Amino acid sequence: MGNVTSNVAAKFAFFPPDPATYGVTKDDETGKLVFSGVSPDMNMEVHQLTTKSGNKVVATFWRHPFARFTLLYSHGNAADLGQMVELFIELRAHLRVNIMSYDYSGYGASTGKVIHSSQVTQRL
Q1: What is the pTM of this model?
Q2: Ordered domains of the chain (ranges, CATH)
Q3: How many other β-carbons are positioned within 10 Å of the β-carbon of residue 80?
Q4: Are 85 and 25 in contact (CB under 8 A)?
């Protein structure tokens, strides 16, 4: 019975913003990936990582000029990277750290379907 409950809960727990709060485009001048729909930040890099299953996952790297550490930030399940921009700017400034962040498959501009925790467990 517990497994049925967790499967039902997982279906309601994972809901990416629809529509996504940002897009990814290539800057014509630099050739680098940038967020569209979000204010530009000169110290932010946008990357698209390819997973084993062929999905493209969006990741960002927020650089602080005096950082000695890098924080890996995994956002909550009802957000995407576009909604986290202001938080990342504040964290970077106040903690003086670089921040590496990423979207999950099916969130934001990342391709693929949302994977529920029960599906991850079953794949292990």
Answers
A1: 0.81
A2: 22-123 (3.40.50.1820)
A3: 22
A4: no
